[in-house]
Write a structure and sequence with these properties.
Layout: H1 3-24, H2 29-54, H3 59-83, H4 88-110, H5 119-135, H6 141-165, H7 167-172
Helix pairs in contact: 1-2, 1-3, 2-3, 3-4, 3-5, 4-6, 5-6
């Protein structure tokens, strides 16, 4: 397994640790969880840089890297929803988009094609991870609301782009 794929697997392994820290709820646990989230998010950037610079882009990486991001982001958003910091409707929009894009990717794979993350998907991931990081901080409701709307808007826009750019994949499934 190459270095980029190892970083993806590390990110996946960090998710239960992230959640355990959040649910233990000790003094400062939110900041420890934030640090874990940031480190996991940085591995997302690092594994992509390493894979591209070394020319080791693999189907495993194309599939597992976005999956690792989805799991990390959904873990955080579900926790925020449970804590009352994120409305369920916003979390549902993100969840539906992630399932829809994953379904699109699976249909494509079934037809011999791998859909790698596009620019809008990468922008969505970065802005969502930044928004989540801010939600861990003691900020006012206006900032929380702004972060939620940024997350929702980039989620919807990038999801729409995936389907527009890959509409031929859906026609294959007929």
């Amino acid at each position: 397994m190459n270095t980029a794929n190892k970083l993806t697997m590390l990110r996946i392994a960090m998710i239960p640790v992230f959640l355990i820290v959040l649910y233990l709820g000790f003094k400062g646990s939110t900041y420890v969880a934030l640090a874990i989230f940031i480190i996991a998010s940085i591995t997302d950037f690092a594994d992509g840089q390493i894979a591209r610079s070394r020319g080791i882009i693999t189907d495993f990486g194309k599939f597992m890297d976005p999956l690792a991001d989805k799991i990390l982001v959904m873990a955080a958003l579900l926790w925020f929803t449970e804590q009352g910091r994120m409305p369920a409707w916003a979390t549902l929009i993100v969840l539906v988009r992630e399932f829809a894009v994953t379904a699109l990717r699976l249909i494509a794979v079934d037809n011999g094609r791998v859909i790698a993350a596009g620019l809008s998907g990468k922008v969505k991931t970065v802005l969502t991870m930044l928004g989540i990081a801010v939600l861990f901080l003691p900020v006012g409701q206006a900032v929380v609301t702004a972060c939620i709307w940024v997350i929702v808007l980039v989620t919807v826009l990038s999801g729409a782009e995936y389907f527009v750019r890959n509409k031929d994949v859906i026609s294959w499934s007929k």
